[in-house]
Specification:
The complex is a heterodimer of chains A (about 130) and B (about 160).
Chain A lengths: L1 H21 L8 H4 L6 H10 L11 H6 L10 H16 L6 H6 L7 H20 L1
Chain B lengths: L1 H18 L17 H4 L5 H12 L17 H15 L10 H16 L6 H6 L7 H20 L1
Helix pairs in contact in B: 5-7
The chains are: A mainly alpha (about 130), B mainly alpha (about 160).
């Protein structure tokens, strides 16, 4: 009896391991290395953890990619970059992003209050830079 | 069998009459709008002003131009929800109270949402087909918005 239980649990375990290996959390992302945006490392780490899964060229989420695609950042006009920076800081602050559904799968992508403050400060500085140009 | 059909018909008719008593408050206001987008940009070409009025202002301002069927439940509920959501997101009436960077973002977003067809929303267009934007209208919105955003940036 014990053996039967064990035998029936094993494939389930194997399946779970397989799924875990496929999940974005454990996949080392090559995306951030390819993106040379000249942004501070501490900000890049946060963006990679919480945004890049959906908002880069490699993403399968067409809607998210259409709204904001970090892989195309350099091609954005100055006014669009300002708008996007304003949007990034706003949606993160209001906790509209990352979306709840995504956080269910990847809870560690949630921003702490300190991280939100960091992103906001960075986005403000980037906007000011562009406004002065 | 015929009788059951008749009963169902009566029930439907009765509920239709009954729901008419649940009215929504109309989104209309007589107040002046000193910060209004179109007032600030009164030099905008008239046809473009009309485009904004027909396709955006009904949900994104304090004044909705209601078509006759908009007052009949359940349409009135759906339309009320659209207006609530729209005003919550942004109001053209409040444009000039925004800072420079927010104005630039506002102008950029106008072009973006009409270009990717997220605005006006598909379900809204089912009730308001006249709010649909043609490719030419989208182009003039974007050209105008971009010029204004660059002007703001250089100011």
């Amino acid at each position: 009896m014990k053996r039967i239980i064990l035998l029936s649990i094993l494939p389930v375990l194997a399946l779970l391991l397989f799924i875990a290996a496929q999940s974005p959390a454990s996949r080392v992302s090559p995306v951030a290395d390819d993106l040379e945006l000249g942004w501070p490392e501490d900000v890049m780490v946060l963006l990679e953890r919480s945004c890049f899964d959906c908002h880069t060229a490699e993403s399968g989420n067409i809607k998210a990619k259409g709204k904001l695609n970090f892989s195309k950042w350099e091609g954005y006009k100055l006014t669009k970059q300002i708008s996007k920076l304003d949007g990034i800081s706003g949606t993160i602050e209001e906790k509209d992003m990352p979306p709840k559904k995504y956080l269910e799968k990847k809870p560690e992508a949630a921003f702490t209050d300190e991280e939100i403050a960091l992103i906001k400060k960075w986005a403000d500085a980037e906007i000011d830079k562009r406004m002065e140009e | 069998m015929k009788k059951i059909g008749l009963v169902i018909l009566y029930i439907l008719l009765g509920s239709f009459v009954l729901i008419q008593f649940f009215r929504v408050q109309k989104n209309v206001s007589e107040d002046a709008v000193p910060y209004d987008f179109l007032q600030v940009h009164s030099d905008m070409p008239e046809n473009l002003q009309n485009t904004f009025r027909t396709s955006c202002y009904d949900c994104h301002s304090n004044n909705t131009n209601y078509p006759w069927y908009a007052l009949i439940a359940p349409f009135s509920w759906v339309i009320d929800q659209h207006i609530r959501n729209g005003k919550n997101e942004l109001s053209f009436n409040a444009y000039d109270s925004l800072g420079k960077r927010q104005k630039i973002a506002f102008l950029d977003q106008i072009c973006e949402v009409v270009s990717d067809s997220s605005m006006p929303p598909q379900n809204y267009l089912m009730l308001h087909p006249d709010a649909a934007l043609s490719a030419d209208e989208i182009l003039s919105i974007c050209n105008w918005a971009e010029t204004e955003a660059i002007k703001l940036l250089r100011k």
